[in-house]
Specification:
Helices cover 43% and strands 22% of the residues. By secondary structure, the chain is α/β, with parallel strands linked by helices. It folds into two domains: 39-133 and 232-274, D-Maltodextrin-Binding Protein, domain 2; 136-229, D-Maltodextrin-Binding Protein, domain 2 (3-Layer(aba) Sandwich). A hairpin with a 3-residue loop joins β2 and β3 (61-63).
């Protein structure tokens, strides 16, 4: 074969490879674009929006005696379904644990997580958070007869936490010398406290205030620990379409003070007059 033909053949092969690679890249990009653009359309075609919530964290997310999902997060989730699909009953509640929230989003088991999900830098690497609807900090609850009022009192004692929570992360990072008893479910953790397996329990202060009010003999001795954080809906990383819809929805709901309405319906009965709603509620997705 002449040198001219060899060069021509090599050029043709390279050109064909380039065209195929370009087509493959274009196809992949198109598929990615379609996936990103069709998330809401997929929800509409399915006819339900799948929202991850807790089953055992009253008054935020729990299953009542009739098997119905109730709570602050649930109240807001139903409104999301109504505004997106025209009917609040078109929400499919998927029960999650604290440690499974990220996994459920990544595995496409849910469209949105609204299980009292605190925004952290670590979690931002794995999921996309919308704007917040709630403020929160850590707290510590303990028996009234042996109250824990400072972290120093926990040295040499066992502290109960839930796996996958900011309480676990905070104490692991800042107080590694404190022994942690870790549980998957909230019910397990609080039973451990009642059984005196630990000296105290650390969790979101918003949950502890309500729990201590319902359970005589316990007090939130440390009402605020660490920095104030926010709680927000979360979607799968890269799902900008659904993320933008949620942010617009929160802004729209803010114009009617809907998160305050959710507070009145679900949290005030648990807190009574002991809590100022402005210390918890974030309206319109924006901190004041």
């Amino acid at each position: 074969m002449s040198m001219k033909k060899v060069v021509s053949l090599v050029f043709s092969v390279l050109l064909l490879a380039g065209v195929l690679a370009g087509c493959g890249s274009s196809t992949n990009e198109t598929k990615a674009d379609q996936t990103a653009k069709s998330s809401i359309e997929e929800i509409k075609q399915r006819g339900t929006i799948r929202i991850g919530v807790f089953s055992d964290k009253p008054p935020f997310g729990f299953v009542d005696a009739n098997g119905k999902n109730q709570g602050f997060d649930v109240f807001l989730a139903k409104r999301f379904a109504k505004d997106l699909l025209g009917d609040e009953s078109k929400v499919e509640f998927v029960l999650v644990e604290a440690a499974s929230r990220v996994e459920f989003l990544q595995a496409n088991k849910v469209d949105i997580i609204m299980a009292n999900f605190t925004v952290t830098d670590e979690r931002k690497q794995k999921v996309d958070f919308a704007n917040p609807y709630m403020k929160v900090a850590l707290g510590v609850v303990s028996p009234s007869g042996e109250p824990i009022t400072s972290v120093e009192q926990l040295k040499g004692k066992k502290l109960i936490v839930n796996k996958g929570t900011t309480a676990e992360t905070y104490f692991t990072k800042n107080h590694p010398d404190i022994e942690l008893l870790k549980y998957d479910q909230n019910t397990e953790a609080f039973e451990a406290l009642k059984d005196k397996r630990g000296a105290a329990l650390a969790h979101d202060n918003t949950l502890l205030f309500a729990w201590a009010k319902e359970n005589a003999g316990y007090t939130v001795g440390i009402s605020t620990l660490g920095s104030q954080d926010t709680i927000a809906p979360a979607v799968k990383k890269g799902n900008k379409e659904l993320l933008d819809w949620i942010n617009n929805e929160l802004e729209t709901l803010g114009k009617e003070n809907y998160v305050h309405k959710a507070y009145e319906e679900t949290l005030k009965p648990a807190y009574g007059e002991t809590i100022n709603p402005e210390d918890i509620v974030v309206e319109g997705g924006k901190l004041k």
